[in-house]
Amino acid sequence: MTRKCVPMIHVPDVQATASWYETIGFRIVQTAGGEDGGLSFARLAYGDSEVMFNVGGVPSSARRREVDLYVYAEDVDGLHATLKDRVDIFKEPHDTFYGMRELIVRDLNRFWITFGEASAATRLLGGIADADLAAVQAAITRPGVSADLLTVALMKATHASQPNQAIVRTLGEAGAAEPAIAPDQLLQHEGTYAREGGGHVRVLLREGLLRAFTEDGFGAHLVPIDETSFRPLEFGTTTVAFGREDGGAVTMTFSHGAHHERHTRVQDAGQP
Question: Within a 10 A sphere around the Cβ of 185, how many other Cβ atoms?
Fold first, then answer.
């Protein structure tokens, strides 16, 4: 038998739960009857994955239950169009900072089900890294391709060690435009910045783009607005501004609405 892990969720009504999951594309593969003539157990499949439902669960009005299901899917936007009038949509299709495009719904017991697939950014930047013109062309047509993403893609393609001119042309034809900011103007922002209250962010120039790396290794692409102001591609409406205090200290401030998080450079990029 193939080794695998299958979640088992206890629900108030197995029959109703199994029937509901059938309506969103799951397939019943095994059931067991209960004393009342209904089901006491059901095992369902979605592609290569499975989930089990058993008796003993209790109703809930909670915003979020004890467990979620994460389903790797294809065409999240198409799935949303199919389901939006039939299920409780918790969050419509959206791109996440960790590279997925997701749709979140709640089942009849208020358990979250997240359908996820690689975002347009993941597909596009991956295609550029692999010099895969067909992948780039396909990614450009997907939902979630913004002007900022095209800017990042063009900068990565143009500043690659061996630029793929067909990819560069394709991005230009899609409307991508590289900001007129010289690399040395970006280079001046490199370094390690300490956050007030603890923690740090490291800013490095890679493939013509500034990237901000957190302590856990996550990196955000900084899309230039001008020489000192940037938008992190992966964080929506957040902005990053570099500046210099009267005493000469270099600062970096993340702003999101009324929230501002200030960092001070404590180490230049070239220092050990």
Answer: 14
> How does pLDDT run across 123-181, given as a tens digit for each residue?
999 999 999 999 999 999 998 899 999 999 999 999 888 899 999 999 999 999 888 88
Q: Which amino acid is at 214?
A: T
pLDDT value for 178: 83
Q: Report the C-alpha gap between 151 and 221 in whole angstroms.
A: 10
DSSP-based three-state secondary structure for 64: coil
Looking at CATH, the fold of the domain delimited by 183-267 is given as Lipocalin (2.40.128)
Encoding tokens for residue 173?
A: 């034809």
Q: How far is CA 219 from the centre of its chain?
A: 12
Spatial CA neighbour of 80 closest among 103, 110, 47, 112: 103
- CATH 3.10.180.10 residue ranges of the chain are 8-117
Entry pTM: 0.82
β-strand partners of 243: 251
Amino acid of residue 73: A
Pick the CATH number of 8-117 from 3.30.360.20, 3.10.180.10, 3.30.565.10, 3.40.50.300: 3.10.180.10
